[in-house]
């Protein structure tokens, strides 16, 4: 049978361990008077010539809130929405242009194997409300694929 540790031994070990955590913090306290705790403690305005940043000078607060800057000009909407699907070594990107400007889309494929040639497809124009399907492939696995957009 295994012997059980008594409760007194467990309490003694726990108190020694906790004391080990408390002593370094007590030694790190600055010398001198103990700091006052609680909301009634006064914050010194200057210590050794340094101004305390926690103190707020009411004279520095403006009487009125500052004027809000004008909102930035919204960006012009451009670019076809493309969904890229990778199945094994094949890549298919379906693009739909829902904007009134023509978008030149190009499919880029990065192959996983070092000896497999990466592919950058030709730019294809997608007119307003137009759709296009771009395809490419690698000999083995595809690492990543993406579509770039350009104005004509």
Topology overview:
Elements: H1 7-27, E1 46-47, E2 50-51, E3 81-87, E4 90-96, E5 103-111, E6 119-120, E7 124-126, E8 131-137, E9 142-150
Antiparallel strand pairs: 1-2, 3-4, 4-8, 5-6, 5-7, 5-9
Walk me through the structure.
The mean pLDDT is 80. 14% of the residues lie in helices and 32% in strands. The strands form three sheets. Strands 5, 6, 7 and 9 form a four-stranded antiparallel sheet that branches. Strands 3-4-8 form a three-stranded antiparallel sheet, with no helix packed on it. The chain is α+β, with helices and mostly antiparallel strands and 152 residues long. The longest helix has 21 residues.
Kindly state the percentage of residues in helix.
10-25%
- Based on Cα principal axes, name the global outline: flat
Order of helices and strands: HEEEEEEEEE
Biggest sheet character:
4 strands, antiparallel
